[in-house]
Amino acid sequence: MLDSCKLKSVCNLPLIYNKKINTSGTSNADVPLADPGMYQLDITLRRGQSLAARDRGGTSDPYVKFKIGGKEVFRSKIIYKNLNPVWEEKACILVEHLREPLYVKVFDYDFGLQDDFMGSAFLDLTQLEVNRPTDVTLTLKDPHYPDHDLGIILLSVVLTPKEGEHRDVTMLMRKSWKRSSKFQTQSLRLSDVHRKSHLWRGIVSITLIEGRDLKAMDSNGLSDPYVKFRLGHQKYKSKIMPKTLNPQWREQFDFHLYEERGGIIDITAWDKDAGKRDDFIGRCQVDLSALSREQTHKLELQLQEGEGHLVLLVTLTASATVSISDLSVNSLEDQKEREEILKRYSPLRIFHNLKDVGFLQVKVIRAEGLMAADVTGKSDPFCVVELNNDRLLTHTVYKNLNPEWNKVFTFNIKDIHSVLEVTVYDEDRDRSADFLGKVAIPLLSIQNGEQKAYVLKNKQLTGPTKGVIYLEIDVIFNAVKASLRTLIPKEQKYIEEENRLSKQLLLRNFIRTKRCVMVLVNAAYYVNSCFDWDSPPRSLAAFVVVEDMLEDEEEEDDRDDKDSEKKGFMNKIYAIQEVCVSVQNILDEVASFGERIKNTFNWTVPFLSWLAIVALCVFMVILYFIPLRYIVLAWGINKFTKKLRCPYAIDNNELLDFLSRVPSDVQVVQYQELKPDPSHSPCKRKKNNLG
Question: Residue 432's pLDDT band (boundaries 50, 70, 90)?
């Protein structure tokens, strides 16, 4: 039995206090309820029996919620199509007192619809004996239909009194991976014993290669498969491969490895169905503790509860330097450490670890004039610092609208075109954290060593909100590595919210696309004027160019429609909504593509424009010495033999990868720095303090 709560991703901490308690005897009845001591409640959710059927097929997809004091502290995984599910999941919960019972609720998961209630029960914590494992059987009831038999839930619980003095703590935040995709957070505190603590121990690099002989889930004998990965609270969803039983994904992504001994990656395969619940194809797991480090493992995994295989490449590597420290301890102020960092990213080390592009140090100093989120007119602010999928947090400053954090965060840069996001939240013990403001700062726009006041923006980064945040940022990187990294696929964030249908967003994307189309129309008018000989010199030049470069291209579009299916009214509504979202996303992609081409030529990001010029100059020099036919031949040989030389290489287009780094007009607005009020100047603040 645990004597202290080890704070891992499985531990949910609804209350964060440490107080001494006095216990005499083994029963909680001996403990005065007026003395609100701290207890640790270790729960193992075993299984359910004879649960209620909520789906038309006579089955359910149950999952369980635990609540204490009205706050959700645990949510289990979903067991599909099973009325006798087996979870065997553990939760570690700290409770401040035993007056509040544990509220257990069971739901049936419905994709795209409201989940169905399957029953609930209460566990009276005052009836538990301390330091003794207890098996508990809870009978599920519906308050509206108390006579209905809804089955039972089996638990094992251990209640342990906690002792110890209050310590200074550092905040970490976990994503609550709810199906609504809304950003909700729970607070998790770690002891800040060490001045510099590394928060994850390694990186798990996963490449999803392909699927083989998957189960056909559609009436046409095919499927539209995609795969979901989960490691702790981290999740990733692959793209959808339409109409195939042997999909080729070739997708690569990374997970953080928090535990020394590894972990279990849960993998599920699904068939996408528009307008109704996606079909379950199968599941499998990867035990990371069984894999050796610094070595790539090819895994062919048999899907359980289904058919077919998934082929993966998994590599475990040591963690990059990602850390939190106090303001008095930072790498760049230590002359020896600074020289080592500069040497690591010097031009002489171009081919040493191409993935390690640079070093980022962020000083989160303070904020001023924040929004009041609590009824007392105050807030409990903490700050989240994100770089792609790396996320670190400050501690919480309670009841303060002008908090001072004075923390230093360090990251390794894998892509110099990444955007640093700093978000301020209000910690709320009873519900998810409240949003107070956010800034997005492209790494290439940072001025090293300058303390600046950034005006906080709204969630969409389209306008200001109340308050400013003071940051000092330093970026050191190798320009050659950064340029080479530009020509490979961009890292995808696996915690991004799914796009939803929005009338304003749909209209905005339509207008953006219309602008791009009008540019093409105007270009067509210009070309047409050449044929009309409005300007003889221009028409003559166009005639010579077209004669040399004219090529014929043919395109074929193959379309294969699915068999029509009978759908109910709600299914049709969801199908229409999904089509509208797809149209919205396609308009955004088309408009962004045109805007990125424009922004390359108008020097929105000078680094990228210079890179394009250098690449064109190099190509011209090569073309001067080597005939074009040899260059085309070498390019063709490289493309056609790529799969032979590297069978599991991820397909990419260097030009599209380059353009993906150029911001669209929407992103330019989001990254635009708002001018703060002159009263928020750091220099003026120092003068006021001296006065």
Answer: low
Tokens of 9: 């991703």
Contact 51, 84 (CB under 8 A): yes
- Measure Cα distances from 221 to 245, 273, 416, 490, 566 in Å: 9, 14, 45, 34, 17
* Secondary structure letter of residue 578 according to DSSP: H
Phi, psi (rounded to 5 degrees) for 627: -60, 150
Cα–Cα distance measured from residue 562 to residue 559, given in angstroms and rounded to the nearest whole number: 10
pLDDT in tens, 645-666: 877 777 788 899 999 999 999 9
Distance CA 513, CA 504 (A): 14
Tokens of 435: 């949003």
- Specify the CATH number of the domain 39-161: 2.60.40.150
- 173-189 burial code (b ≥16 CB/10 A, e <16): bbebeeeeeebebbbbb
| Amino acid present at 550 | L
CATH architecture observed for domain 202-318: Sandwich (2.60)
Question: How many beta carbons lie within 10 A of that of residue 564, not counting itself?
Answer: 7
Q: Convert the pLDDT of each residue in 485-541 to its tens digit.
A: 998 888 877 555 555 666 677 777 778 787 777 777 777 777 666 666 666 776 666
Taking the alpha carbons at both ends of the chain, their separation in whole angstroms is 59
Q: Return the H-helix or E-strand segment holding 586.
A: helix 569-601
d(CA 304, CA 283): 5
H or E stretch including 523? Answer: helix 503-531
**Residue that the structure tokens 């905005």 belong to:** 508
- Each domain of the chain, given as residue ranges in start order, spans 39-161, 202-318, 335-483, 502-507+575-670
| Distance (Å, whole) CA 327 – CA 406 | 5
The CATH H-level (homologous superfamily) assignment of domain 335-483 is C2 domain (2.60.40.150)
